[in-house]
Amino acid sequence: MSQPENRPCIFCKIVAAEAPAKIVFRDERVTAFHDLEPIAEHHILIVPNRHIASLNDLGPEDEPLIGYMVGVARQIAAGQGFADKGYRLIVNTGAGGGQTVFHLHLHLIAGKRSRFRIG
Ligand code: AMP
Ligand code: ZN
Question: Ligand 1, residues 14, 23, 51, 100: which to mutate, most atoms within 8 A of Cβ?
Answer without folding.
Answer: 100
